Amino acid sequence: MNRWKKKVPPANQPNIRPNLAGEGFGGRLGYYFTRALTNIRQNVFVNVVTVGTITLALLIVSLFLLVFVNLENAAENWSERVQVTVYFDRELSTQEQTALRGKIMALGGVSRIGYVSRDEAFKRFVGRLRGQETLLEGVRSDILPTSFEISLKRANRDTQGVETFVASLKGIPGITEVQYGEEWVRRFNTFLNFMRMLGALLGGFLVVAVVFIVSNTIKLTIYSRRDELEVMALVGATRFFIKAPFLIEGIIQGGAGAALAVGLLWGLYEGFLHNAGSFLTFNPAATGLAFLPIEYVGALAVAGILLGFVGSLTSLKRFITV
Hints:
Domain FtsX extracellular: 82-178
Order of helices and strands: HHEHEHEHEHHHH
Pfam families: FtsX, FtsX_ECD
Strand content: 5-15%
Family: Belongs to the ABC-4 integral membrane protein family. FtsX subfamily.
Number of strands: 4
Largest sheet: 4 strands, antiparallel
Shape: elongated
GO cellular component, one term: plasma membrane
InterPro entries: ABC3_permease_C, FtsX, FtsX_ECD, FtsX_proteobact-type
Number of domains: 2
Number of helices: 9
């Protein structure tokens, strides 16, 4: 009977247990990843639901981003129409044009200056009356003024920037009449500010909703395995040892959800481009409709990983105190 008696190590000999996670940090990390993958294989349905929830949530956010990015691009194209025109009652010599260009450029905020002669102005006028050119019979180009058409840089196209530039422009000797469509500029910038504010509000709401949905979905995943967590805690496993595989599992779920969301978004984008002609009166591709820039795709990937990590971390707090 004595041979079945449990052997107790001497008091001066340490009780050495095998390291299941391997030697060193790399071995532990490998164990955590292996355990996370094992958990995924053992709970396929729950993980599919979690990844599907993250995918759907990020797809909604990415669709909103796609619309917002293209609206911003359209607004940028429209803002290029913000133009300041300086009129003269006579033709300017080359030297006069050069001198005035230098003074205008010195004001700052100018991206391009174009000189419009009387002949060029007359050609434009005739072009606008296409089909009614007979109305201009006997009319000479002398009746039209010459002008400088000034395009501003993006940072100076807001209402305050345009008004400040025009006030400085009127201070240059030789410039008397300046037009820039005050009312159009004001309405356009009001519209831009409204769209940006609306985008920020909707984007913030979507982010909060996504975090809430994903966190609660992962919480259900953790709750379904609460017995496993309790057993691991009872046998002496450390908090980090218990949490690490679940955190890695959340990261994998978030990354997979982000990849699926971007893939679905790309499929929807391509499908819309190729089939929009059947129900729209214009070709979206011709309007410059673009997919998300690479930095936005990277941000979605990071967001998915963070969603999975934070969702797992907050869900584990119910069972494991930090």
